[in-house]
Amino acid sequence: MKPAHGLLAGFASPEKFIAALKRVKAAGYTRCETYLPFALPEALEFSADAHSPVPKAMAIGGLLSGLGAYFMQYYAAHDYPLNVGGRPLNSWPSFVPITFELTVLGSALSGLLAFFWIARFPRLDHPVFDDPRFIRASSDRFFLCIRSDDPLFADPQTRRFMADLAAESIAEVPS
Amino acid sequence: MKTEPELAASDRIVDPSLTVPGVTATISGMILDPPRPKLWLLGFAIGFLLVLALLAAVSWLFIRGIGIWGLNVPIAWGFAIVNFVWWIGIGHAGTFISAILFLLHQSWRTSINRFTEAMTLFAVACAGLYPLLHLGRPAYFYWLLPYPDTMGLWPQFRSPLVWDVFAVSTYACVSLLFWYVGLLPDLATMRDKAPSLLGRRMYGVLALGWRGDGRHWSHYEKLYVILAGLATPLVVSVHSIVGLDFAVAILPGWHSTIFPPYFVGGAIFSGFAMVLTLVIPLRAMYGLKGLITARHLELMAMVLLATGSVVAYGYFSEFFTAWWSGDEFEKFVNANRALGPYAPAFWTMLACNVLVPQLFWSRRLRRSVPVLFVGALLVNVGMWLERFVIVVTSLHRDYLPSSWGMYIPTFWDWTTFAGTLGLFLSLIFLFVRLLPAIAMSEVRSLVFRKGKVS
Question: Which of A7, A114, B44, B294 gives a 20 to 30 Å CA spacing to A32?
Answer without folding.
Answer: A114
